[in-house]
């Protein structure tokens, strides 16, 4: 299993034929540093530009231009979660981590030996691809925060998409920065009990998990840590609101009621209760993907609508409520928005962005578009022509262009690599398309991430898409969903989703 270690950074080896771009350092610095260095870089660039001007007229023009702020306003100097949001922080230097949140025996042959008796823990298994697993961990971290538990984050595994490679999410996202800045309490299963894929070196431990908030229960990584998972569909109080965050929180804290329900269920089903369920130390759910507050569910919202657009789609009250107050995706507003991409991902994503736009900076006014095809091509009743045409994206883009200055660039990512007509239609619109084949992105990812390259590949486009001041995505795509949330939270942008033909 690979852990995120920061990659040594190289001077940009780009082929822009442009000395400035060749020497530009792509390292992503902490936000404060980033601003200082970009200011001095901007000053240097301006000086150089003026010196290069042949005549007085050119110099004057440049001066008027830079004092007018034209160029300065166009450049974007910071990426990821805005620095101003980062303010909570734990006591400097004492952020609890695996050393303090577990016993000295950790990682242990049995997980019970790794857990501190005075702490409560919350865990889940993973499900779905990168985006689904990441979203599930956000829900886990949110519920752990509300219920004052330490999250034990699962190892990520998805043989369907990424081969046999297993990772922890900090390989691709900056979880350590999140821990440091927000004081979130979490460890990884690796910290608790080592990966033991053939069950040779550790003890087989039982772990009983209550049903989560939706029907997806096929966990993928517990067995790799030699955990025998059983799922317990014990009814929670709360009636038809039993899958809300509030119901899950009360279910946790009302231990007496929970254990009464558990014993009744076990008697009825004639099952033996796993040790972890007999008290409140380790709570496990089968899945927590896509949490919602009672306020959202009381209005008829359900998890399967989570794929739809989140802004200005239906209902007047929904329009009036701030997006963060609608009760859907509370885990994003409480947790997800603070988790940045890892520096190594930013490096590759920014490089691809510069090359695709043929610029040496990221413009502030940029609209990103995600055209998701892949298995969506045959995923409808008709079984073919199931993905929207490029025209549908143009329609959704138009109102966003009205919000943007003239000459705003459109940057497109798509998983389509072969359909020449489709790709030609994008290029004919004058949109800029990230062509990873031409950029050789996979080769770089393989050099740096080895077996985990395909996991990293899933994340690079998300970092690129997050640079949009506004965004158009594809309905039903978790990448589009995450990008909507990022563009809304990080850039204050508007987003639209193109519905797929039914
Ligand atoms: C936890 O933090 C302490 C203090 O900063 C550090 O010495 C230790 O190595 C950290 N443990 C892990 C597992 O990162
Ligand atoms: C940046 O892009 C260029 C052109 O595709 C490529 O040759 C180079 O390896 C890339 N570097 C990184 C760090 O992604």
SSE arrangement:
Blueprint (H helix, E strand, L loop, with lengths): L18 H5 L7 H22 L3 H12 L2 H5 E2 L21 H4 L19 E4 L5 H17 L3 E4 L2 E2 L1 H4 L3 E2 L7 H8 L3 E3 H4 L12 E6 L16 E6 L12 H9 L1 H15 L12 E4 L8 H5 L17 H5 L9 H5 L8 H15 L4 E2 L2 E6 L18 H13 L6 E6 L5 H9 L3 E2 L2 H4 L1 H9 L3 H13 L4 E5 L3 H14 L3 E4 L4
Parallel strand pairs: 2-3, 2-9, 3-6, 7-8, 11-12, 11-14, 12-13, 14-15
Antiparallel strand pairs: 1-10, 4-5
Helix pairs in contact: 2-3, 15-20, 19-20
Bound molecules: 2-acetamido-2-deoxy-beta-D-glucopyranose (2 copies).
Descriptive account of the structure:
Helix content is about 40%, strand content about 10%. By secondary structure, it is α/β, with parallel strands linked by helices. Helix 2 runs antiparallel to helix 3, helix 15 crosses helix 20 and helix 19 packs across helix 20. The longest helix has 22 residues. The protein is built from 21 helices and 15 strands. It is globular, with a radius of gyration of 24 Å. The strands form 5 sheets. A 5-stranded parallel β-sheet has the order 13-12-11-14-15, with helices on both faces. A 4-stranded parallel β-sheet has the order 6-3-2-9. The relative contact order is 0.13. The chain has a domain of about 240 residues. The N terminus is likely disordered. The site of one 2-acetamido-2-deoxy-beta-D-glucopyranose has 10 residues, from helix 15. It comes from Rhodotorula diobovata. Keywords: Membrane, Transmembrane, Transmembrane helix.
